[in-house]
Amino acid sequence: MARIVGIDLGTTNSLIGVMDSGFPILLADSEGFRLTPSIVHFPVSGEPLVGRPAGRMRAISPERTVFSVKRLMGVRPGETGKDTFPFRVADAQGKTTIVIGDHTVTPEEVSTIILSKLKADAERSLGSSIDRAVITVPAYFNDLQRQATKRAGEAAGFAVERIINEPTAAALAYGLDRLKDRAKIAVYDLGGGTFDISILELNEGVFRVLSTNGNTRLGGDDIDRDLVRLLEERITARYPEIRHELKDPLFSARLRELAHDAKLRLSEENGMQIEIPFLSGNRRFNYLLSRQELEAITRPIIRRTRSHCLRSMDDAKVAPRDLDEVILVGGVTRMPIVRQLVAEIFQRLPNTSQNPDEAVAIGATIQAGIISGEIQSVVLLDVTPLSLGVETFGGLMNVIIPRNTTIPCKAGEMFTNAVAYQRSMRIKVLQGERELAKDNWQLGSFEIEFAPVPKGVARVGIQFEIDANGILHVLARDISTGQQTLLDLASAVDVSDEAVEQMIAESVDHAFEDMSERVWTETSIRSNELLPAVKSALTLVGDQLTQADKQEIDALVKAVNEALDSKDIQRLKSANAALDQGTQHLATLLIDRAMSEAERRRAG
Amino acid sequence: MARSMCWHCQSEVAGEYFCERCVKVQPVSKETDYFTCLGFPRRLTIDPTELEAKFYELSRAFHPDFYQNKSETEQSISLGNAATLNTAYRTLRDPIQRAEYLLDLEAGAVKEIRPSPPADLFEEILALQDTLEEYRASDRASPTGKQLRDKLHTEQQTLEQRKCDMEVQLKQLFFDWDALQDRGEATGEARSERDRLLKQMREILSNRSYVNHIVDDLVATIG
């Protein structure tokens, strides 16, 4: 049987391992290191450089050298947050891309290049070809980010046998030689780009995740960024006249390297001399950076992990004293301040037995061993990190599979036609914990088709399945035949709200005589959506309206009702539009109410 | 036990998860309830350690990790079985969810009963709702606000006590139910006892969740 490799596709470094006579081992890359920097350099001509050779180009050719691409995986333009990169990140028709000269690459393609190097180097070192892999992702990755990672692996020529969560992998590495134990552990995983916390129960070879939480844009990169800012401030304080030169991409890249190295050094030392001999002209910059200064920057970033830890313990129904160990993984956990803050959160000294850079890759390799059958005594039961739901009336999220449900899992949901003779309905699929649909990740949408029957008679069963990779599949079940068909989730980009509205508007505008029935149905669907929504909104927040506002809305409602009776399409369309327009204020009040309710609940 | 045919070798399988002849995994039938799935009788008292052990044992049998090298059919059976198993365990692990699930299974005659809360509880809660509204509208730092808060706090304790009492009652009913099942009598008396127990459980469960909602609301308001 073909071997399966385990891969940690990290923000900063990537690693690859394989089972060897029952033990997980990590393989060195062609430069002789187990840690391959997740950096890709695109030269003006020729093949891209990957890993250490690419790293050397970062300070020389920053705009053509891509790093930390994991923070862009499965992320839509506008969701990149505070991240800034020396290379150009752009929006190409709703997809995040990286612009290199006159070419563009996607974050997924960059990951594929990194994975291809790992594959080629491992094949060279093993002397045989490999085409099956287990790849790790942050536990808090959503469906889109998982799918992007899986596609990147497939494009590199792997059959991706499993996508496994990083803290879970680390738990495997910790627990493999403790298979007789029963214990509750927490894995605190703070890497270059992402933070995860998972609580697990280990019970004679069963690794069961009880809960997981995290933040996919919180990590060492944030410390580097703030440290660069501090150094820039110190430089401008000394040489205000060269302020503009700090923005030079070459200089920024150099400063970033310096900051990153200083951060690493200060885990061992109490202070270090930062030296930039040829800052500008014959200006030189010397600065003694103390560990205290670095810690002052780091503390607020690490504090942000606290609420995630508390929530995960709450979800797992454990208190700090119930935990037997808190395992640290991820390079950033080498920092003394991180260990100190973790000790405070969990009220105990963390366990540092695992190599923070390698535990995840070792765990991925163990998972590969479980799948290939080389390891037989281990069962891994993981959970889905985020609640899955659909958007319901009024823009709220209706949870179908709650977070921390053991995977694989399934849940069925029945949809029915809201009005008579409605032919179809578009359902938006969401992931996240917020009350309002728009605050959650939009995974995409699918369309349900109904037979033309009276209101409430059409029924379509939809099955939501989350597989062992944490990836969602949506199936429609035909009730009469029992046949299931896999539905494609159109990405939210493909069908933006505007596009859908435009489509409807166009179909209405270009209606011919024989289509008038359908147009009438569509328009009356809109009315029948609006009217009950307005009615329920009035009962909820009507007391916050002025008498005049109320009268106006009453009049608009009356106009829609009359238009419905008149069977005049144009009249109904404009009555709908007027009611929609006239109740905008009402919608705002509703959202405010939902927000304050959510706040209240959270505060409680 | 329902009899069916192995999807692979067509030999007869009698509810086992693996065909005796070709050892292929068999799909857990849609008609299999969660108790049967986990190999427990339909009882309301279940030892959590035993349940967990059974869950782990079946996870070792069904988890998709062990089917990655098998045929597509077996992979899809494994996925379906593991998903059913996970839901079954989640439902049976929690005593309240377990009871609600059993009621759904056994409902029959009592299915139509939509219990309404007893009058005294209903009035108590109506009064409480008023106090809650008053508190929300009041200046919380004022003496009135503080007074209302104390009042709500006392109410909360009363309700939580009530919830505890209901849970004690439930425990007794669970016990009675299990005993009745164990006797396995088919008399008319046993049948009416059965309906009485189901009806009472349904009532208390629904009152409990009613009280639960109010307590949640209270906690959210007074913190």
Task: Show the helix and strand layout.
The complex is a heterodimer of chains A (about 600) and B (about 220).
Chain A: E1 4-9, E2 13-20, E3 23-26, E4 36-37, E5 39-41, E6 49-50, H1 52-57, E7 65-67, E8 88-92, E9 95-100, E10 103-105, H2 107-126, E11 132-137, H3 143-155, E12 159-165, H4 166-175, E13 182-190, E14 195-203, E15 206-215, H5 220-238, H6 249-265, E16 271-280, E17 283-290, H7 291-316, E18 325-329, H8 336-346, H9 359-372, E19 379-381, E20 388-392, E21 396-401, E22 409-416, E23 424-431, E24 441-449, E25 459-466, E26 472-477, E27 484-487, H10 497-509, H11 516-541, H12 547-566, H13 569-582, H14 584-603
Parallel strand pairs in A: 1-11, 11-12, 13-18, 15-19
Antiparallel strand pairs in A: 1-2, 2-3, 2-4, 5-6, 5-7, 8-9, 9-10, 13-14, 14-15, 16-17, 20-21, 20-23, 22-25, 23-24, 25-26, 26-27
Helix pairs in contact in A: 2-3, 4-9, 5-6, 5-7, 7-8, 11-12, 11-13, 11-14, 12-13
Chain B: E1 4-5, E2 12-13, H1 34-37, H2 48-62, H3 72-93, H4 95-106, H5 119-137, H6 143-183, H7 188-222
Antiparallel strand pairs in B: 1-2
Structural class of chain A: alpha+beta
Main sheet specs of chain A: 6 strands, mixed
Report the principal-axis shape of chain A.
globular
Instruction: Let me know the average pLDDT of chain B.
Output: 86
Tally the structural domains of chain A.
4
Indicate the CATH architecture of the largest domain in chain A. Answer: 2-Layer Sandwich
What is the total tally of β strands of chain B? 2
Percent strand of chain B: under 5%
Largest sheet of chain B: 2 strands, antiparallel
Largest interface: A-B, 26 and 24 residues
- Give the end-to-end Cα distance of chain B, rounded to a whole number of Å: 52 Å
Radius of gyration based on Cα positions of chain A: 28 Å
Provide the low-confidence segments of chain B as ranges: none
Helical region count of chain A?
14
Distance between the ends of chain A: 55 Å
Q: What order do the strands of the largest sheet of chain B run in, or round the barrel if closed? A: 1-2
Number of domain modules of chain B: 2
Tell me the helix content of chain A. 25-40%
Reading the helices and strands of chain B in chain order gives: EEHHHHHHH
Number of strands of chain A: 27
